Amino acid sequence: MRLCGWVLRSKTIGRVVIVEVSGGDVRPYVLVGKQDLNPELYNTLSTLPLGSAVCFEGEPAREQKSKRGTEFEVKSIKVYAEPIEPLPVELVGKVPSLLETRIKYRWLLLRNPVEKAIFRVRQSIVQAAREYLVNNGFMEIHTPKIVAAGAEGGATLFKVQYFEREAYLSQSPQLYKQILISSIPRVFEITPYFRAEKFNTVRHLNESWGIDVEQGFIESMEDVMNTLENLVAYIINYVRDKNKEELETLDVELPRVTTPFKRLKFEEAVDILRSNGVEVPEGEDLSDQAERELGKIMSEKGNDLYFIVGFPWQSTGFYYMREEDGHHTRKFDLDFRGLEIASGGQREHRYDKLVEALRLKGLDPANFSFYLEAFKYGMPPHGGFGLGIERLMMQMLGLNNIREAVLFVRDRTRLVP
Amino acid sequence: MRLCGWVLRSKTIGRVVIVEVSGGDVRPYVLVGKQDLNPELYNTLSTLPLGSAVCFEGEPAREQKSKRGTEFEVKSIKVYAEPIEPLPVELVGKVPSLLETRIKYRWLLLRNPVEKAIFRVRQSIVQAAREYLVNNGFMEIHTPKIVAAGAEGGATLFKVQYFEREAYLSQSPQLYKQILISSIPRVFEITPYFRAEKFNTVRHLNESWGIDVEQGFIESMEDVMNTLENLVAYIINYVRDKNKEELETLDVELPRVTTPFKRLKFEEAVDILRSNGVEVPEGEDLSDQAERELGKIMSEKGNDLYFIVGFPWQSTGFYYMREEDGHHTRKFDLDFRGLEIASGGQREHRYDKLVEALRLKGLDPANFSFYLEAFKYGMPPHGGFGLGIERLMMQMLGLNNIREAVLFVRDRTRLVP
Q: Is the pLDDT score of B283 beyond 80?
């Protein structure tokens, strides 16, 4: 077989040279050259400059002695490129502790098994999600990212100059996936989200990716929560089974997830927090701080993953269905150890109520005419959610900063690389 | 089993009522109610308003008499929503001939088997592509869509206000996928492309989707062309095998594709065109018109899919590798019956030559510093391509306008829905 990668580390012990090559797999290929057996190969391996791009022909060694990676019996090796400057960062061992360095040199640090493992898990998350959704009858769609109006109002929209007109970047496929529920019973999209939030925290990105799902013909919000909890369990258990080497490299133990997840009413969450001495101002959404505290309390009770349901209407988007009491909505969050990783709920599918909701939220129904139109022709009860890929990764892998979960960071100050 | 959808058509013949329901499958579910056998069901089915959203419990009938879809023995049926206004478009039979209507009401027309078939094929294309690429060692990535500089210069960039700074929407992941080849041997992304081209033709969109691939450690441009032709053959044969009902509904016959595809040098293409009386101005790229003519000539020779290779340097992006003659490049197009569906080639991976190429193209290397940096540390020879999903769909399904291949159209004038 032919394998390719970059010389990560090289060591000569007497008449034996050991070269580690970082390729497509998370663990390096380990090439061993013995002067006595093959002097030519020994010489080539001994003189490979650090960081060179090489391919070799070989087979996995019968005896696997190295713990660092898979050992190969090498037949031939060829150099494709050599560094023209010394490597600007160390690529073996621990990844740099300075976040700035990690973000700047991510494209190079990916040669490090730790950095690479993170993004191989990311790929698995996306694969697992698609597998689960397609197997459950969801159709994959692509909706526009340049839009005329945002689902959540103007404050967090990035402006785009679209020829003569002013347009925006899509905050989420919310409006589009909903109108498709007037003709396709179940849809999903793997999509970038663009949010001009000015936060500069460890849990916010201005360009992030999500798994966005919408499901029609539901009986209640529970149907949507079932889909979400089963999806998340499927993803985590998939990574647990298929990414053993990655998890080992990252020193992460991922317990098998079972469903159902605990459901906590919003008021219950507030009560739990208050009885644990956390202040929660009346009529407000939970702060990041309160979410974290709740996470600790829930984890102690054995609930790493739990829903918070029935958010008050004043803190939600216009499209969530309100309960009869006019105060509660069918909106839920899914929290993972104190971090909201998904948000969703049952939508208002009744035309009149939807127009009323827009007005109550101070939005002009005229700006949503194509969206409203779709509610006139047999729009079934429906609901859905957006699951943040980077946030899920943070909690699965114990990353300290969401910027570790994305190849190229877009935040309050970063536009390059 | 429980199935859901919308009442598409209903017909009563004496004591038998036949209702077609458009659900998740391309062909409708056919529900038959006989007054003599089950008067209650007969009554319910007879009075279902057109366009209603319904779910039913039932099993496929032992005897399948209907040619329209799959017949079901219905145990129970429930109405989830009814239209509050008459349907604005006809949802059975042929799709509306007016493109404007199709674009405006796509979210509703998807109840029509013809419209739905198109987007089920689209889903299959994306699934097949991922399957092929993952099985061949390509890692799925997500690169930023908000960028500081475009791969192809400023003329076709949409401007975005990114907080205090001016930024752009990504024309393609070109620069990002390339720099990742300094640490991951093979990558791909399914991604939106944003191009502010002012064309208003049947083959251009301003927001489109593509399958973007980059491959390191290549011996020549041929390695990249092999990946592309095998990918396209895999996709087409996958749809041919898995979407028989969709193809039948669309009245499309898709011949099995075999590789390799014919390779045509750019000069050969020009010669063929000229000897067939088509004018091709010296030193220019092929016009859309010339491409179409060439398509006809090639199809007559049995080549529906063919490469054009070695485009002249003056008409290509700065990142293509130039041949020693300084005139030809290792850029290719893949054409499908006269339409360019993919474009790619071998890249310049040598730092000095790349800086020179930027200067020759009148671009300032300072604007590409993060990109150039990645070429200093063992960048192997590499190449890749972008394959346009909508253009591939057009040619596979014989669509007349690229706007038929995308759920929501973004073109020179359309920003809604």
A: no
Give ranges for CATH 3.30.930.10 in chain B: 113-405
CATH class of A113-405: alpha beta
For chain B, the 3-state helix, strand and coil shares in percent, each to the nearest 5, are 30, 30, 40
CB B375 within 8 A of CB B360: no
**For A102-111, what is each residue's pLDDT tens digit?**
999 999 999 9
Domain(s) labelled CATH 2.40.50.140 in chain B stretch across 2-87
Which residue has tokens 């769909």? B393
The ipTM estimated for the assembled molecules is: 0.97
Tokens of A266: 């919003």
Q: Answer yes or no: B343 catalytic.
A: yes
Residue B84 near chain A (CB below 8 Å): yes
pLDDT value, residue B126: 98
For residue A127, the chain B residues in CB contact (below 8 A) are 130, 134, 140
Residue among B72, B73, B111, B117 nearest B92 (CA): B111
Q: Which of B57, B73, B197, B356 is catalytic?
A: B197
pLDDT of amino acid B153: 66
Q: How far off is chain B from A269, nearest CA to CA, in Å?
A: 33
Selected residues 249-308 of chain A with any CB under 8 Å from a CB in chain B: none
Cα–Cα distance between B249 and B247 in angstroms, integer?
5
Q: Is A151 annotated as a binding-site member?
A: no
Class of domain B2-87: mainly beta
Please check the confidence at residue A411 and state whether its pLDDT lies above 90: yes
Query: pLDDT tens for residues A192-237?
Result: 999 999 989 999 999 999 999 999 999 999 999 999 999 999 999 9
